[in-house]
Amino acid sequence: MTNLEKCNAGIEYSYADEELITLKTEAIQQCEIFNAIDGREYVAQYHQLQQMLGAVGERVWIAKTFNCDRGKNIFIGDDFTGNHNLTILDIREVHIGNHVMIGPNTLITTVGHPLSPKSRREYHALAKPVRIGDDVWIGGNVTILPGVTIGNNVVVAAGAVVTEDVPDNTWSVAFPQKSSRPSRMIFDQKNLSFCEFNQIKNDMNDKPTGKDYVGSDDLYADVQRTMRLCAEMNCGYHTESEVRDYLREITRSEVPDTVRVFTPLNINYGPGVRFGHDCFLNFGCTLLAIGGITIEDGVFIGPHCVLATEYHPENPENRHTLLTKPIVVKRNAWLGADVKVLAGVTIGENAIVAAGSVVTKDVPDNMVVAGSPAHIIRPVNPEK
Fold first, then answer.
1. pLDDT, tens digit (0-9, with 9 covering 90-100), for 302-318
2. Helices (H) and strands (E) in the chain — how many of each?
3. Which of 67, 156, 235, 338 is most deeply buried (CB count within 10 A of its CB)?
4. Up-side HSE of residue 122: CA atoms within 13 Å toward CB?
5. Domain housing 351
């Protein structure tokens, strides 16, 4: 058997094989073409997805940057949304159903490596397909491992590591994930209309712009403008001063000269973001800011952090409604790498959030928190 045949049969194979390297190289080239398309050119993006993937349904949208291993092993149904920095390692097939939403910085992988160091040094791997059902919402920073099947009407909480099958109609949480409870319906929350989402009046009193959007036209235009400016800012090298100038235009506000940002930085709604003095954001952060994000003086944010003011109802019939709550990161707080901060959270002054944490509730001043969901570990030690 060839290594490709071994791979497709679920047998350990060598990924150093020339045929497999060629397939991966072609996928890398196709991803580069997709990621170079202007974010406003939806038709061009959609046609490129049809060219590079195995199957693409109607109303499919994937934000930049998107990466995959083969492309042709990915099969997507209708009404799909993939947010920023989605990676699908489709050495084997990945089947995604209808009405699926995937949050930023999520990894779906069909391939793993042997536990034996000898086999790893010989470039061995083992691949298993992944299946995702209909009406599934996968939060940000989720990792889905090889061989997993996620059922219909499932919600996978932000930061979860999915190591085994998830039954229909359940929540999946924690690290590694566990089936928490059946999904329940929510009908009593305030809603924000957006793009083609339901036309429900916004009640976002704390939004920094002070502008109350009723309907979607103005908000949609601001989102498009933000995406265009972020694409320009993230393309090529810019000095720190040039990046700040972009941020002033993106946020339509004053950005202090002491703010430092390492690009790429993804923002979906610039007017929702406010920066204090002496802030630092490391590489690859994502700010989903329709609900409003305030980053106060002296805040450090590590690489690949996600601050998401937006979420969706559990009820799949209402899941195209966007719900929002503001996020505030107070003075001198430090967020480690790969932290996920969920809607409505306030991070207290001088607080430290350990790398990889998922913050689902407020963090008190002067506390260290860690975990998924994050919990208090101890007070900050000023002597350290």
1. 888 999 999 888 888 88
2. 6, 38
3. 156
4. 11
5. 217-379
Where in the sequence numbering do the catalytic residues fall?
113
Residue 76's pLDDT is 98
Q: What does the pLDDT average to over 81-85? A: 92
Asked whether residue 188 is domain-assigned, the answer is no
pLDDT tens figures, 200-218: 223 333 333 333 333 467 7
Whether 314 and 362 share a structural domain: yes
Question: Cα–Cα distances in Å, from 330 out to 250, 284, 289, 346, 352?
Answer: 22, 21, 16, 7, 11
Residue position matching structure tokens 């109607």 = 58
Q: Is residue 196 part of a domain?
A: no
From 127, 150, 179, give the residue that closes a domain. 179
pTM of the model: 0.67
Q: Which amino acid is at 39?
A: G
Give whole-number Cα distances, 255 to 50, 240, 259, 271, 299, in Å: 40, 12, 7, 12, 14
Same domain, 242 and 150: no
Q: Are residues 133 and 263 in the same domain?
A: no
